[in-house]
Amino acid sequence: MTSANAGLAHDIAIVGGGAAGVLVAIQLLRQARKPLRIALLEPQPVLAQGVAYATPYPEHVLNVPAQKMSALPDQPDDFLDFVAADDADERARLAPAFLERRRYGDYLRARLAEAMVTSTATLEHVQQSVVTLHRHAGRLHLGLQDGSSLECARVVLAVGNRPRPLPARGASSLAPGALTGAWDFEAVRAIPQDASLCIVGSGLSMVDAVLSFVATGHRGRIQVLSRHGWWPQPHAAAAKLDFDAGQLMSLGLRARLRVLRRAARKAMAAGQPWQALMETLRPHGQALWASLSAADQRRFLRHLVRLWDVHRHRIASDVHARMQTLIDSGQLRVHRGRLDAVMQSGRCVRVAAVTRAGKELHFDVDHVINATGVELRVPTMRNALLTQMLGDGLLQPGPHGIGVATVGDGQVLDAHGQVQDDVVALGSLRVGDLWESTAIPELRGQAEHAARVLLA
Ligand SMILES: Cc1cc2nc3c(=O)[nH]c(=O)nc-3n(C[C@H](O)[C@H](O)[C@H](O)COP(=O)(O)OP(=O)(O)OC[C@H]3O[C@@H](n4cnc5c(N)ncnc54)[C@H](O)[C@@H]3O)c2cc1C
Question: Gene3D superfamilies from the xrefs (predicted)?
Fold first, then answer.
């Protein structure tokens, strides 16, 4: 699939071959009714991995049950078809299960290969990063990492997730190997079993790292540090709740919280877990965001986002139980504090943090793991293409400075607010506009709509 023909003109170029880029490619191939040349630009040799599905390790599982992970909006059981085929018992067993993430990459690649066989369109994987985009004579010109260029009529931006740099003084002067990114799955696995660790961040990436340590039989102490000290809540089997999410849309943030707290208490009094309420809200995430005033969106981002995250982005209950066992045994401790500095001190790293009450915390550890998550602000994403487009006015930051500004089906707004019908974004770049915009249930719908716009 890899192409050396980057110089030839293409109809559509997809920048980024993680899950989102591959979902768009599948939709374009399925929806095309005439010959079409599509380029999928992704520097990695294997498509459909990105960050989430690149892990080769079985301990890293999906945080969404298999029955909700179809890549195709019109075939909701498609992922189950892939993992269990016609075996009814296996389907029933796997539907609510949290499967290994690496299987999801296999699934997307299989569906891409099938779509390529039957489509009137052709797809080439150009194994390059895109570093610039310019308009010239009504065409779009992509500058590639190796100095070559690719010309096309339309572009999809599916550049996905970038890790946030460690927010601490001294991070750049640590000894090589002392600081590891949580998404560097192999490096995390290679940390010696007796090493003492500080994981900065307490969300899903922290859980991934801890699961790797459990898998390697890690014996050293693990300190987890985050501003709030909350970590992801467990999923729980729950029946559908009789709750009308529509009643929230006209309310401000505070009033919504009151209604939700009441509804959660009522559900629990009736023997339902609070998770049932979150599941009921899940399909309304984008509408809930859009119906908040700009001031309430800001308040949410400033004061509530972490609380929301640990309830919304939950983990399998057995994973939660494993985490709790480590906490109960004293091997893992979660601290609440703001990271201030990291300093190399001989072979150790001294981590300095400050609690809300102003108390200083210090840990001397062998390794620091950066699990602070995804960078949402384009100017600090360190993505050459986005930096150039922002600088040249081809896009503007999204609401509250996160993601990029888009309309409708992802058409990007330039610096003057003009809609660019030939540049479409999806996934985490749309987080400011849509909020819920990174998980597969959203990406598959965005991909279908983006393909429709691009083929119109
Ligand atoms: C650790 C983790 C676990 C997750 N688990 C789940 C889950 O279980 N279920 C779920 O629904 N969601 C999950 N998510 C959400 C996840 O964000 C999406 O499912 C999905 O992986 C996002 O895909 P993406 O293509 O938008 O981004 P990415 O996976 O980040 O892929 C973007 C791709 O674009 C490429 N790229 C970037 N810039 C350029 C450029 N300039 N030129 C060319 N290529 C470029 C990168 O190399 C990368 O391959 C998880 C996320 C993370 C981080």
Answer: FAD/NAD(P)-binding domain
